[in-house]
Amino acid sequence: MPALIIGAVLVVFLGFLIMRKPANSTANYTPVPTNNVSPALQAQLAQVAEGFTCFCGQCNDKLMECDCTNSPNGAMEVKQFILTGLEQGKTVDQMKQAVTLKYQPS
Fold first, then answer.
1. 0.85 exceeded by the pTM?
2. How many CB atoms are closer than 10 A to CB 88?
3. Which residues of 53-86 are buried (b: 16+ CB within 10 A; e: fewer)?
4. Which residue range is the domain that position 77 belongs to?
5. With contact defined as beta carbons under 8 Å apart, do 61 and 52 qualify?
6. How do the pLDDT tens digits run along the chain, 106 residues long?
7. Residue 15 covered by a domain
8. Count of structural domains, the chain
9. Which residues contact 99 (CB under 8 A, 6 or more apart)?
10. Is 7 within a domain?
């Protein structure tokens, strides 16, 4: 009987750890230095981000206006992904497709 109680407590504890999602976790967060980005690249970023909302699942803000660092899939992470692709020479349409494939649930 004590083993059953200990087992039940462990299951509840492990369930809690698995379901817990830290708010504003910055473990994999790299800030998007938009003030150091050229106006042309900022305009392309805005073109890609339009039509998307933040993918973090904790807010419903428009992607371009959101600065959340929620992990995973916070706005700052997604905007950094977009900027990296644009800096590598990908087009706005290619990055829209890439964001859709990577971040939108199927």
1. no
2. 9
3. ebbbeeeeeebbebebbbbebbbbbbbbbbbebb
4. 23-103
5. no
6. 776 676 555 555 555 445 544 444 433 434 455 567 899 999 999 999 998 999 998 888 999 999 999 878 999 999 999 999 999 999 999 999 999 999 987 6
7. no
8. 1
9. 48, 52, 78, 81, 82
10. no
Q: Are 61 and 54 in contact (CB under 8 A)?
A: yes
In-domain check, residue 18: no
Q: In this predicted structure, what is the pLDDT of residue 46?
A: 96
Nearest Cα to Cα of residue 82 among 22, 42, 53 = 42
For residue 69, give Cα distances in angstroms to 28, 45, 90, 105: 9, 17, 24, 19
Whether 65 is in a domain gets the answer yes
**Cβ-based neighbours of 60, under 8 Å, separated by 6 or more:** 53, 54
Quote the pLDDT of residue 54: 94
> Letter for the amino acid at 81?
F
Residue of 27, 84, 79, 20 lying closest to 54 (CA atoms)? 79
Give the distance from CA 30 to its chain's centroid: 11
